[in-house]
Amino acid sequence: MTSLVLLTAAATFRMLTLQQALQLALERHPDLAQAQAQAQAAAARADQARAPLLPQLSGNASYQRTTGNFALRPGVVPGDLRGAGGNSLATFNFFNFGLSASQLVWDFRQTSDRWQAARANAQAAALATRTTRQQLSLALRAAFFAARAQRALVQVAREQLTNQQRHLRQVEGFVEVGTRPPIDRAQARSEVAQARLQLIEAENAYAVAKAQLKQAMGLEDERDFEVADETLPPVGGEERALAELLDEALGRRPELAGLEQERRSAELSGRAARGRYWPALTVSTSLTDAGTQLDALAWNWNAQAGVSWPLYEGGLVPAQRREAQASVAALSAQRTALRQQVRVALEQARLGVRAAKASLEAAREALEFAQQRLGLAEGRYETGAGSILELGDAQVALTQAASQVVQADHALALARAQLLQALGRE
Predict the structure, then answer these.
(1) HEC states along 302-366?
(2) Of the four, 69, 279, 295, 340, which is 20 to 30 A from 359 by CA?
(3) pTM above 0.85?
(4) Do 99 and 59 touch, CB atoms closer than 8 A?
């Protein structure tokens, strides 16, 4: 329902905000739906592993139409030897109803450790869902900011085309009165055509970026929209030292916690395998009601305790323990490698934010100077002191400076999104 409202709003105002895009991605993207389904399946497997620890109750009922001929077997002596011989085709009904219950008493923690191992795997799967959410959020933000940057570049190209068309009208007036040679008009027309081509390319790149944003949101419809002019605010603590940020990242990243749960599951599986060296004690009871007529059934009850002890299973238990030990070692090494990756990703994101902030400041300063240069070039051209080439160079410099501001702003937003993901923040 929420996603429908957001889509309706996007269709009505043709303006998609970052928050709307994030919400749609978290509700619609198939990768997150898959991760959630896998977490639910892992939780169900944990419940399955717990089932043998609980009482087991079963009922049965059967009906037979059978003959009653006695077959003499060694060790069986009929009560009346005279009735032991002869066969008959006569048949009779036989009804049998039963109810049985059993309970595992103790198996040296084999079953309980398997249950705890399955629970640890379920927790790891739930943490994997959080990891998928964070990865989708980063991918969505990257796609959103890329589309936002392309939209800004479209505006830069439009302004360039507008300026070039204004310069063309100005040059044509000078050529008509004879103060400028015709080659200036040809040069101005060429620059207008070039600006128009750049606008077409920018608009196409913006359309492609919006298609990629749709994919990041998990949408498949033909709905069109414009990307809102939004960016990420400063990330809390983005200027802090790496050691401080690393402590937060190691405590928040769900991948690390998930690997720890997987390692714990492997340890518990090994302990459960070790329990198979010892016997298991089970108690059970059953109640039956049987006879040839439903109104004349005879009931019986029994209770029993049983011990099962697998004395030799072909080396199964030692192999299972070796497998569990190897899994623990592999997961420990994987966790160490992930810690190193988190450190590098955090340092890159932190330095990326710092560099992007400095680049944005320098790009804005360069844009201001380029605007001043273009104004001076236009004035010199109007007075005859400047050339058409000087005017064109100033316009190109302004366009480049404006594009650099867009790119620096995009780099800053992307670096902050990467820093959020590196820190493990939602």
Answers:
(1) EEEEEEECCCCCCCHHHHHHHHHHHHHHHHHHHHHHHHHHHHHHHHHHHHHHHHHHHHHHHHHHH
(2) 340
(3) no
(4) yes
Q: What is the pLDDT of residues 246-293, one digit of tens each?
A: 999 999 999 999 999 999 999 999 999 999 999 999 999 999 999 989
* Domain chopping of the chain, boundaries: 13-55+108-277+321-423
Distance CA 410, CA 231 (A): 8
Task: Return mean pLDDT, the chain.
Answer: 91
For the four alpha carbons of 204, 206, 210 and 216, in that order, the dihedral sign comes to positive
Least Cα distance to 209 among 139, 149, 137 occurs for 149
Instruction: Please state which CATH number belongs to domain 13-55+108-277+321-423.
Output: 1.20.1600.10
DSSP label of 238: T
d(CA 122, CA 47): 10
How far apart CA 410 and CA 347 sit, in angstroms, is 19
Closest Cα to residue 346, out of 236, 232, 250, 231?
250
pLDDT bucket at 79, cuts 50 / 70 / 90? low
